[in-house]
Amino acid sequence: PGVPRHTNRLINEKSPYLLQHAHNPVDWYPWGQEAFDKAKTENKLIFLSVGYSTCHWCHVMEEESFKSKEIGEIMNEHFVCIKVDREERPDVDKVYMTFVQATSGGGGWPMSVWLTPDLKPFAGGTYFPPEDGVHRVGFRTVLLRIAEQWKENKDALLESSQRILEALRHTSEIRVQGQESPPPAKEVMDTCFQQLSRSYDEDYGGFSKSPKFPTPVNLNFLFTYWALQRTTPEGARALQMALHTLKMMAHGGIHDHIGQGFHRYSTDQHWHVPHFEKMLYDQGQLAAMYSRAFQISGDEFFADVVRDILLYVSRDLSDQAGGFYSAEDADSYPTTTSREKREGAFCVWTAEELRALLPDPVEGATEGTTLGDVFMHHYGVEEAGNVDPMKDPHQELKGKNVLIRRCSPELTAARFGLEPAELGAVLQECRQRLCSARARRPRPHLDTKMLAAWNGLMISGFAQAGAALAEQGYVSRAAQAAAFLRTHLFDPDSGRLLRSCYRGKDNSVEQSTVPIQGFLEDYVFVIQALFDLYEASLDQGWLEWALHLQHMQDKLFWDPKGFAYFSTEAGDPSLLLRLKDDQDGAEPTPNSVSVTNLLRAACYSGHMDWVEKAGQILAAFSERLQKIPITLPEMARATALFHHTLKQVVVCGDPQGEDTKEMLNCVRSVFSPNKVLMVADGDSSGFLYRQLPFLASLERKDGKATAYVCSNFTCSLPVTSVQELREKLSP
């Protein structure tokens, strides 16, 4: 492409998504005072478009409408047009998505909303095609109709927007009712399990027919439910549901068998044809879930998937300074000479291509068998392509194959007369060849924005994997990323987190002219990460920082009247609503994770008012937890931890001593959802001893590493054998 004909204000932004729109003929503004002032001065409506850089339909709407000179002229004449990256500004996204969902019954991205000059929404939707069709009004028509309405019926529009805002305020309020207390754990856990069990897909795992999302929050709930009910039939079913889902996902096309990592979701029931973008938050949470599956089952299959995810993130989503990038796009150019991007082009194969890349005969197999024969059979490759046309509305995948493991290794080996070990080597050779071939294709766009919250989820993934798999390299990578956050996404003067930073020129790390302050989710996921990192590394500096951030979170976001945390700080006049998220989705809602964070913080600090706060959050969400806990599985899980009281597992000993390491490995290898781990190393000047005076009374027995299992700072008899400790750790 030659020199762009248009350049708008977005050229001065750092967000990759905003920069993608910097050469549209639309006179885009970023969210901010300049745009608001223009709308008021010129008495114009605002058109707000919200999306993110790896969003397929956002690209479609840009190609069809925002790159159109004619549509651009209509937008510029009648509206002040604002572009928002939802990953940079989840606060803005949430306010207007609440409106779109309430008024249209659905939501998604790109989100298109029309606002009065004082930012009140009155019309909205998601993707609009450019022109009118049989079933849908086109974007151009909508723009002209709304402009006409503003000219003819301004007062009615203003009145309607005020009514809408009042209704939203009322319906989105979450607060404690009267003297409500935390709901009973057993009832909440049982109801949540029954609701998940009813929506569970017995054949393919997961919790809907299609589309199918990984939803780590459901799996985390099921693991905890099993741990607390392991002798019951319900407990056994919960574990089977979680492990089967994780296995089917790993076999499916949602898992990238060549380039590692997981795509965002599957468009079908079988985990086969995905939407191909890869999100950092999925990799972080799934690394943690597969680590737990390995802890519980001891099955190396799950450990291999953990290694696969972390290899992908280390190679493709890592900044050299230590942070993690946000996402990889679904769309890319099929070849270096292509003019048009296609979804999944980087990941899919024709049968012909595979044959050409894998022509060699396989030694020891049935005569005439090639590498291609074995690979294509194992991964469900078909001559005409293996994608159901119903799942490919734009025919972008016609004749292509999305790899999905169709057979067990034993069946594939038997079919071609191979031993299972020989088959493993054959498939490994095939995957390496395809990986090299894929490296010659144009790569999808990489969103190099680095977000505190998602980095927190990924640090937890590396730390938990390092602890469960006893892989020190993963713990070191988690520590490197935490140090990156402290350097680039924390302001030591104010003691506050920042939301985002960006890969700049020459691979430097850049910040916006006016940095975006951290939101509730940034604090919550970073605090969780620092607790996980302390348990994996025993570096008390991470613990100290976590407790500092918890105090700051309380100060900025706590609602003293209605309880629980607001998603945003007070005091931003451009935000019409201060909301509390009430649904665990692709990521858990911050209040859900806060309950567990507060319980852990109390165990490490002795501040029991944090336990009280955890109970107040549960009280604020009590009605939802008792009626539809399936919408808050992470908070339902936290309800059980609140009522069971966390076990403080204290290991007394020299952290470098072999006997201490053996004890620590035992604690880390057991899945026990209601434990916190700490080491009493005898250094009474250390941070933990200053926080928890009771540690000074604990000592080693007979000069050996000794463990104590404590509850509310009251400890059991000392334990010096690993076997005895293992028994004490089961809930």
UniProtKB/TrEMBL annotation:
Q: Where is the Spermatogenesis-associated protein 20-like TRX domain?
A: 7-168
Question: What top-level branch of life does the organism fall under?
Answer: Eukaryota
A Pfam family that the UniProt record links to this protein: Thioredox_DsbH
One Gene Ontology term from the biological process aspect of the record: carbohydrate metabolic process
Q: Which InterPro entries match?
A: 6-hairpin_glycosidase_sf, 6hp_glycosidase-like_sf, Ssp411, Ssp411-like_TRX, Thioredoxin-like_sf
Q: What is this protein called?
A: SPT20 protein
Top-down, what is the taxonomic lineage of the species of origin?
Eukaryota, Metazoa, Chordata, Craniata, Vertebrata
Q: Which gene encodes it?
A: Spata20
